[in-house]
Design goal:
four-stranded mixed sheet, 139 residues, alpha/beta, 8 strands, 2,3-Dihydroxybiphenyl 1,2-Dioxygenase, domain 1
Length: 139
């Protein structure tokens, strides 16, 4: 496949202190699907790849990772927007799991002026996750 003909997607990269707990939260509470979860010799996840049911992916690793371009990243410093048709379902799961809900589901307008239905939760290490119906200017 030529470079021009390749599929384009965006994969946010986050880092966590407790990668095993992050994996459980992202899969069991927020609803991602686990594709790869590579542990180190002590059983801690050092690299994970998760898919969102509607498309897209997330990569995460450990803050213990100190080499490469992502080495030394701190936990809890990211924010991710996920296009989602079931904002209320994500909110229910997050609330039931005791996650901090930053914004309950509500209608709002983003900078583009388009109406969208969203909610925002924090994961256990402080990253913000906004789930909303806005799929971008081309949708």
């Amino acid at each position: 496949m030529s470079r021009e003909a390749s599929v384009t997607s965006v994969w946010p990269v986050l880092h966590y202190d407790d990668t095993n707990a992050a994996l459980r939260f992202l899969v069991d509470v927020l609803g991602f699907a686990q594709h790869v979860a590579a542990p180190d010799d002590e059983g801690r996840i050092v690299h994970a790849e998760l898919g969102w049911p509607g498309g897209g992916a997330l990569v995460f690793g450990s803050t213990r990772h100190t080499d490469g371009v992502h080495g030394g990243m701190r936990a809890g410093t990211g924010a991710v927007y996920v296009v989602c048709n079931d904002v209320d379902g994500v909110h229910r799961r997050a609330s039931a799991a005791g996650a901090e809900v930053v914004e309950s589901p509500h209608e709002t307008r983003f900078g583009s002026g388009v109406r969208t239905y969203v909610c925002t939760v924090k994961d256990p290490e402080g990253n913000l996750w906004t789930f909303g119906t806005y799929g971008g200017a081309s949708s």
